[in-house]
Amino acid sequence: MQADARTTAPRAAEREAADRVYFTLAALIGGVVSVYFLLVPVLDLNLAFHFYLMLWITMASAFNVAAGFSGYMPFGFVAFYGVGAFTTAILVKNLGFPVLVALPFSGAAGVVLGLLFAPTLRLSGIYFAIVSLALASICRLVITNMPEEITGGSFGLQLGSRAEPVLSFYVMMGVMLVALGSILWLSRSRLGKALRAVRDDAEAADMMGVNVTRVRLYGWLIAAVFPALCGGVEAWYTNVVDTETAFNTLITAKTVIYAVAGGLGTVTGPIVGSVVMVWLDELIWRQFPLLNLLILGVATVLLVLFLPRGLVGTLLRRRPQWRRYIP
User: Alpha helix locations (H) across 201-267?
Assistant: First the structure.
């Protein structure tokens, strides 16, 4: 007993020290990032570029909860985004809600859709991915075939004179910070550890007393709420919503690429991946507008071939001792 106590105490102290470094680094990085984005409108930097950078960081981080923490690959991830966008647009345009009041309903719509999709969590691998993609197509068809006075038909909905780019920029920043804070908490919480245990071996986790169904559902709902909020804020930012753009599969494709490029399963991976790939996308688009998608696709293939664990994942594989400190 005394020998166990002598070995346990130093380990606990070591974990506490690592946690202090971990959260201090996270706070410092979060502070620097917050100040930078706060100054974007003040310094008259490219507002649209930074708005979509924050959007993709949020989307990739939320996807990371489903894929990196839970082990699901939701190819229909765009469904949450599209439903959130149309929820905001319908509430604002048809029911006269103030935009800031309508946005939380977008997140709630994402949660409701996540609950409706929850029975698919019993599937795994390619079966879950295919069903998820099919459900996203069904969502798009349902909204497309709704009465034109509700969803605007093929022309979509315009929010009129409610566009406020700077305010919507700061709201997007708030959504991003809440998402990153939630995922940072998740990475060190009991729920995060349970999600990883279920991802690695659901039967073993069940034998250890983990409620597999409940844990999967919690992770799934966290992953659903943030893309729905992104869709709602983006609808406000652009002032128009239609099914072609709100349910475009390219949204899922970019989310997957950005998250995988940084590395799934870490907090910083999707952030780094989004920053690098959005910047690369912007650079290629400016230099080679006609070959943008082709060059970006080649760059993605090379990245996956030579860094299959992503930028942060590869770094942590080569320096595993840094895993304690890098979120």
Answer: 202-207, 212-238, 243-246, 249-262
Q: Phi first, then psi: give them for residue 257, nearest 5 degrees.
A: -60, -45
- Kindly state the tokens that stand for 238: 């652009």
C-beta of residue 276 within 8 angstroms of C-beta of residue 261 = yes
Torsion of CA 286, 254, 314, 128, to 10 degrees: -170
Pseudo-torsion of CA 111, 243, 255, 222, nearest 10°? 0
259, 273 in Cβ contact below 8 A? yes
Residue 167's identity, in one-letter code, is: L
Return averaged pLDDT per consecutive 10 residues of the chain, 327 residues in all. Answer: 57 72 80 90 92 95 91 91 94 91 95 93 88 91 88 81 88 95 89 90 87 92 95 93 90 90 87 90 81 77 82 82 71
Contacts of 139 (CB under 8 A, 6+ apart): 76, 79, 82, 83, 113, 247
* Residue 16: burial class (beta carbons within 10 Å; 0-12, 13-18, 19+): exposed
Three-state DSSP at 241 gives strand
pLDDT for residue 39: 93
Q: What are phi and psi of 39, to 5 degrees?
A: -85, -10
- Side chain identity at residue 20, one-letter code: R
Give burial (CB, 10 Å; 0-12/13-18/19+) of 253.
Answer: middle
Q: Return the H-helix or E-strand segment holding 23.
A: helix 2-42
Quote the CA–CA distance of 93 and 242 in Å, as a whole number. Answer: 13
Run of H or E residues at 45: none
d(Cα 258, Cα 96) in Å, to the nearest integer?
36
What was the pLDDT predicted at 296?
A: 74
Q: Which residues pair with 241 in a beta bridge?
A: 157
Strand partners of residue 158: 240
Q: At 92, phi and psi to the nearest 5? A: -75, -50
